[in-house]
Design a protein that fits this description.
Blueprint lengths: L17 H31 L8 H24 L2 H19 L4 H29 L5 H11 L1 H17 L3 H5 L2 H16 L15 H19 L5 H18 L14 H28 L5 H23 L6 H22 L7 H28 L5 H29 L7 H25 L12
Helix pairs in contact: 1-4, 1-5, 1-6, 1-8, 2-4, 2-9, 2-15, 3-4, 3-8, 4-15, 5-12, 5-14, 9-10, 9-15, 11-12, 11-13, 11-14, 11-15, 11-16, 12-14, 13-14, 13-16, 15-16
């Protein structure tokens, strides 16, 4: 393959790649529909199961299980390759769909959501390793762009379809209706998995600690609970501080050495994913609330900026995929710039006098940053990771993503509790958006410093 920047037409659909591409995109589409659909149907399912006081816990159960599964999947991939997780992950997810879809009460729903989260964590790491094995360095930006595009249809159609299914067939079919898609994805991936080369483990590389992963999962759950309490008491504050301490200690065993201090090279790449995802999560979680409570829009219009953001994310990802020779460092710096600008606009949206189009501009700008940044992080991660440590490093990036997202959303909840609640969120949202914009600026500076020397000469596209 040449390095002139010209892409061979249909690189993802060549005979050697076609089956892998279809299987991956089916799995990604399934996870995206589940993500978008469950949020839409959650009020109905929780009310039907008399679990209003546990409204947030189906999301928390998913997140906590995902954290533990991510680390476990990374260990298995480094020891045995991605074949076993790719074969087992979908069946765990299937068990979660069936358990949630047939749940007689909230306890069963939480178990189902935990199984879905565990299956998702296993699959996300394993599919990243599958990409590393099947696609070369110049092809990876293209498959990452295709993955982003696979989110567009669920982002646009997922909420209305889930709403229609909930109103006509019942919320249970939001879960049960995904079973055929999952089985189709498995049918496509099984032959690919069987054709993977044998894996030779290196027993001297670093392995993630399962105990540390469990500690992180529990700490994230504790922080989530503490952030959701209506008032700050000595118990909730103490629990939150203890959870933060557990996170700080445990993450040292789960992340590349130097990640928490911004060491150049691979630690910077992993840290960039955490900062980028955490900053964007705040906008994604609180923009609909701002549109609804500050600007008085109904549910459909309040969520529409997020659809625009998903489209912008996909479009930017396609652009980077068509230009595999662009500097990944430069793209990542631009990504942080776009996200920072989007968050600055988000802070403006918190003002009641801001026009509605500012919300769409904020989401589109931040989405473009994610579309440029996330594929670039994935490309750099695989370039800088020894093959025997790709599972560990991939799980580390996913962990950072989920943890900072949970912390960001939790921080927004704390600010809402202190500065007016969900009824008057302007002050809390403005402060949160400004803080996250600053984090995005820091992320850009971290990339500028931490990737300038270490990646030079590693590949001509760095």
């Amino acid at each position: 393959m040449t390095h002139t920047g010209q892409r061979r037409a249909g690189v993802l659909w060549t005979p050697e790649h076609r089956r892998t591409t279809v299987g991956l995109l089916l799995v990604v589409t399934l996870l995206a529909f589940e993500n978008m659909g469950v949020a839409t149907a959650m009020p109905t399912m929780v009310a039907d199961l008399d679990g209003g006081e546990l409204y947030s816990w189906p999301f928390t159960a998913f997140l906590v299980a995902s954290v533990a599964a991510t680390v476990l999947s990374g260990r298995i991939c480094d020891r045995r390759g991605p074949a076993l997780p790719l074969l087992i992950g979908p069946w765990i997810f299937l068990a979660g769909l069936l358990t949630a879809g047939l749940a007689p009460g909230m306890a069963a729903l939480l178990v189902g959501r935990a199984l879905q989260g565990f299956g998702t964590g296993v699959l996300l790491v394993a599919t990243s390793l599958l990409i590393a094995l099947v696609y070369d360095d110049r092809e990876r930006p293209v498959i990452y762009a295709a993955n982003a595009a696979a989110w567009v249809l669920p982002a646009v159609l997922g909420p209305p379809i889930a709403g229609l299914v909930t109103e006509t067939a019942g919320w249970r079919w939001v879960f049960l209706g995904l079973v055929p898609v999952l089985l189709a994805g498995v049918a496509m991936l099984v032959p690919v998995v069987r054709g993977l080369p044998g894996h030779v483990a290196d027993e001297h590389v670093r392995r993630a600690s399962i105990a540390a992963a469990v500690a992180v999962a529990v700490a994230v759950a504790a922080l989530t609970w503490a952030a959701q309490q209506p008032s700050a008491t000595a118990v909730t504050v103490g629990l939150a501080l203890a959870a933060l301490a557990v996170l700080a200690v445990s993450l040292r065993a789960l992340l590349p050495v130097g990640t928490l201090t911004g060491r150049p090279g691979l630690p910077t790449v992993v840290g960039s994913r955490a900062l980028l995802a955490g900053a964007f999560a705040g906008l994604e979680a609180y923009l609909p609330l701002t549109m609804s409570r500050v600007h008085g829009h109904g549910p459909a219009l309040a969520g529409l900026p997020l659809t625009v953001g998903a489209l912008s994310w996909s479009a930017a990802s396609v652009v980077q995929g068509r230009n595999p020779d662009w500097s990944r460092r430069a793209l990542l710096r631009a990504a942080f710039g776009f996200v920072a600008a989007g968050l600055a606009l988000f802070a403006l949206v918190a003002w009641a006098g801001a026009p509605a189009w500012v919300a769409f501009a904020a989401s589109a700008c931040a989405g473009a940053g994610m579309g440029l940044g996330m594929p670039s992080i994935s490309v750099l991660l695989l370039r800088l990771s020894p093959p025997a440590e790709r599972g560990f490093n991939t799980s580390a990036t996913q962990l950072g993503d989920w943890i900072t997202s949970a912390l960001t959303i939790g921080a927004g909840g704390v600010l809402l509790g202190l500065l007016g609640g969900t009824g008057r969120p302007s002050a809390a949202v403005a402060l949160l958006a400004a803080a996250l914009a600053l984090i995005a600026v820091v992320g850009g500076l971290l990339v500028h410093r931490g990737l300038r020397e270490r990646t030079r000469g590693a590949h001509p596209t760095t």
